[in-house]
């Protein structure tokens, strides 16, 4: 039952920027679930000065969000997310991990954009493919 709930949360999440799960995740990040989370998340994004750090935060926060929504443990949610995208990769003939990589990058871009919109004076440069968030 929990696994099917997680699968339902992940359905269409890559294709649809306005998917309910993506919108809810943005709310999770911006404190719609709990105000104190806003400050915690914004601080983590602020200090994610490299692509690697932002990727780490994105994976951690998204997995926590999915666990919360599905009523699952973090570890179970993490495993179910990996299984879902592994199955999707097999169904579509893509390389292992490709869908998960695409989702992670899209969520990272959204986090970066959200932070910049909420903190326009932060001097945060947009993400670059070179792996840096070069801060001025």
Please tell me about this protein's structure:
- It is a single chain.
- The chain is an all-alpha fold and 136 residues long.
- The protein is built from six helices and no strands.
- The model has no long low-confidence stretch (mean pLDDT 90).
- The longest helix has 21 residues, at 98-118.
Task: Give structural attributes.
single chain, 136 residues, mainly alpha, 6 helices, 67% helix, globular
Secondary structure elements and their pairing?
Layout lengths: L1 H9 L9 H10 L5 H12 L4 H20 L3 H19 L5 H21 L18
Helix pairs in contact: 1-4, 1-5, 4-5, 4-6
Brief write-up:
This protein has 136 residues and is mainly alpha-helical.
Briefly note the structural class of the backbone.
mainly alpha
As a percent range, the share of strand residues is under 5%
**How large is the radius of gyration?**
15 Å
Mean pLDDT: 90
**Low-confidence parts:** none
Largest sheet: none
- What's the total count of β strands? 0
Total helices: the number is 6
Can you write the helix and strand succession as a string? HHHHHH
What share of residues is helical? 55-70%
